[in-house]
Amino acid sequence: MHSLLKGRSFPGKILITRRADPVDQPNLYSPNTARKLSDDYIENGDNMDAPLEDDFRNRNSTNASSSVTQTKSSSSSGESTSNEIHKSSMGARSTDSARLTKFTKELSGSSVILDKLRELAWSGVPPYLRPTVWRLLLGYAPCSSDRREGVLRRKRLEYLDYVTQYYDIPDRERTDEEVNMLRQIAVDCPRTVPNVTFFQQAEVQKSLERILYTWAIRHPASGYVQGINDLATPFLIVFLSEYLEGSVDSWSISDLSSEKISNVEADCYWCLSKLLDGMQDHYTFAQPGIQRLVFKLKELVRRIDEPISRHIEDQGLEFLQFAFRWFNCLLIREVHIAQSLLKT
């Protein structure tokens, strides 16, 4: 978040007030309380998300009927950036032409300047450029166009090796902890966006399971924590959009070859890893990263909108009780995919 806000200016004014009295750390911020909230989140996740996910499905269907039909292409490592840019321009509205031209210029060079690309992406990325831009901004794909094809091919093969080594083995070769973790992931995958038909496909859940289990084994400090499954969904949708047409509800992953599915999984795995590398303490014991962010949010509200802060206190609420899930899933469960913060 720090890197996203750096150098930004925002319209309007913000009034900041200071309190003379010191701020006490709430006793809710303890390892046991954080673990209790995490457990409650797992038990109640489905009920809490039902209205949101109904709305997501309805909006997704509406958006699909009005979306412009565009030609999809595979993003095999041999496809050139210029072809991707050309396809992204097809059917674009005239009001988007200036921004598309800027993206075209930035992505067509021999080496992408990330600061400039990040500046462009701040206002949103055209859908068919999103996979390319995300790979670059997350540091998964190199800036040099000459190296990009080889690096992606190597990283995708590396992911396949991880799956063979850690996932495609019998349970008798796993530790008890690994067996339990795999079972928990298998339980959580069907809960991921439960009211969207696409995510209920067995093949999709299996892909998500492979991604999450492989990541958890490779990151033993945190392992798998419920909520990480939600963070993987935007990556899965964006990278599948290179191969599948129409609305998400109409997609069928069984239409894809095993090679394309493997490429999508690999891209999801590496981009999820890059995202979580900067926030892994959100998912270690007691989740100190989330507690720290919730405390900062409380301080921000106290300084900017003291009446709201006072009202929350008068109601006997603690920020950790309602903001925990916001930071645990980066608001992915609160905002439907079409408006997700990760879509910029």
UniProtKB/TrEMBL annotation:
* PROSITE patterns, A to Z: TBC_RABGAP
Q: Where is the composition biased (Low complexity)?
A: 65-82
Q: Which SMART domains is this protein grouped with?
A: TBC (SM00164)
User: Its Gene Ontology molecular function terms?
Assistant: GTPase activator activity
Q: Where is this region: Disordered?
A: 23-97
The record places domain Rab-GAP TBC at: 124-344
Superkingdom field: Eukaryota
Its protein name is Ypt/Rab-GAP domain of gyp1p superfamily protein
Q: Which organism is it from?
A: Striga hermonthica
